[in-house]
Specification:
The chain is of the alpha+beta class. Among the domains are: 1-111 and 123-169, no CATH class; 306-440, no CATH class. The protein contains 7 helices and 22 strands. The longest helix is centred in the last third of the chain and has 21 residues, at 419-439. The chain starts with a helix and ends with a helix. The model is unreliable at 1-21, 316-321, 407-425 and 433-440 (pLDDT under 50).
């Protein structure tokens, strides 16, 4: 028994040590040159060696591609099918890539690589599976979690199936070839958008098709901020980025969603509506700057925070109202955006106390500019009082327009308070409307 154990240990030591005694350094430089010529980029390999345990394989360590190290790979293991080593067609059962780090610049030299003409000759090297562990993507302004991939290849080395999962478990996708493209099924739980506002999806399911540089999202259903979102869209990144689509929202908590754009509490209530969007941008990271969106919406049973329209409409303020709240039964309108400029059109507010309508712009500097006309429904009847909206998105203010204040003063002086004030404000409101028409 002692002799058997001794022989086993000697054989084990041989299997572990012999691969490291093979002089791989003699062809390491040659492998770097071949790879550099193929990729038209400098390639360095830290180490190469063969191993027989736990299974026969070739190991590559510390692979770097690119002048600025656009691609770095911690390790690559190539596991051959031993029975194929003596046949005309060599088969690799698994290629395992660990800890790759890919920078955005890698896309440039990948796109510049010449496309090889399809070969009519049968493949002499076949790969059955490809596994990638802990892949990291470093792109400015885009947040991509570490990803894992498991691919199964067909007999012609074409993709048969691909499974993608994020290291944090929040995202997974299944990819299968269909005709000249691929069908993609995406499933996400507690997942945050990788670019733009950090929109959090509690659950998201999407079905997509990919052909070349075109992605069609045939259906997308999501639960977020206590409500639901459905959408379809098309994206094309062949030359820059183009996108268009339609969407619907149902009972989303607008107060939670609004916190993506402001630290202050702006509005609360349940948001529903339908809209469409489109964009054209040369850079994906700056796509949000070129977004054009139209969204017809309504908010039910909410509060407009930071402004008290009823108080401002009493003409008691002439320096601006920077506090208070406006409760409403319904707030509706159309949201129109062009890049970072946001415009609220056909703005209407209705409640038991007042009715208001108008339009407001949010400039790229977050400054507010607009006019809202308010009519109180209780107490002494007032004319529709035009209020100037100013301040910032975080700290809005409303106050009667200069014309309204002047008209109220003149009407009160001529006819006295009450009727005189009302007629003066009404006249001023008409003058403001005429100015608006001529300015257009």
């Amino acid at each position: 028994m002692k002799k058997l154990v001794g022989i086993f240990l000697v054989v084990l030591a041989f299997l572990l040590l012999v691969p490291f005694l093979i002089p791989t350094g003699t062809y390491l430089k040659q492998a770097e040159k071949i790879a550099s010529d193929k990729l038209n980029q400098p390639v360095t390999i830290g180490a190469m060696h063969l191993a027989l345990l736990p299974s026969p394989r070739a190991n590559i360590r510390d692979l770097v591609i690119g002048k600025d190290q656009e691609v770095k790979v911690g390790g690559i293991a190539v596991l051959p099918e031993l029975g194929s080593l003596f046949s005309g067609v060599k088969t690799i059962s698994l290629i395992e890539v660990t800890d790759p780090v890919i920078k955005k610049g890698a896309l440039d030299f990948i796109a510049a690589m010449p496309k090889s003409a399809p070969s009519t000759e049968p493949a002499t090297l076949l790969v059955q599976r490809l596994r990638v562990k802990n892949a990291q993507f470093i792109w400015p302004d885009i947040r991509i979690p570490a990803m894992n991939a498991e691919a199964t290849l067909a007999a012609d080395n074409h993709l048969q199936a691909l499974k993608l999962t994020s290291d944090d478990g929040h995202l997974k996708a299944d990819v299968t070839p269909v005709d000249a493209g691929y069908a993609i099924k995406l499933d996400a739980i507690d997942w945050t958008m990788p670019a733009g506002p950090k929109v959090l999806f509690n659950h998201l399911n999407a079905e997509m098709s990919l052909q070349g540089s075109k992605l069609r999202i045939t259906s997308l259903e999501a639960m977020l901020y206590q409500g639901a979102l459905s959408s379809n869209a098309e994206l094309d990144w062949g030359k820059g980025l183009r996108a268009s689509g339609k969407f619907n929202t149902d009972n989303i908590s607008v107060g939670d969603a609004a916190q993506l754009f402001s630290k202050e509490k702006l509005i609360s209530g349940k948001l529903s509506g339908a809209g469409s969007f489109g964009l054209e941008s040369k850079e994906a990271a700056k796509a949000i700057d070129h977004l054009v969106l139209d969204y017809k919406f309504s908010v039910a049973n909410g509060v407009l925070h930071g402004v008290d329209l009823a108080k401002a409409a009493t003409l008691m303020l002439n320096t601006g109202d920077k506090g208070g709240d406006t409760q409403f039964d319904e707030l509706s309108g159309t949201l129109h955006t062009v890049g970072k400029t946001i415009e609220l059109k056909a703005f209407k507010v209705s409640s038991g106390l007042l009715a208001a309508h108008g339009g407001v712009k949010v400039l790229p500097s977050r400054q507010l500019d607009g006019v809202v006309e308010v009519e109180l429904k209780e107490g002494m009847a007032l004319a529709s009082v035009p209020l100037q909206v100013s301040g910032t998105l975080d700290h809005p203010s409303v106050f009667p327009t200069k014309a309204a204040l002047a008209g109220a003063a003149i009407g009160t002086g001529v006819l006295g308070p009450g009727v005189g004030t009302t007629l003066g404000v009404k006249a001023a409101s008409g003058i403001d409307k005429l100015k608006g028409l001529f300015s257009k």
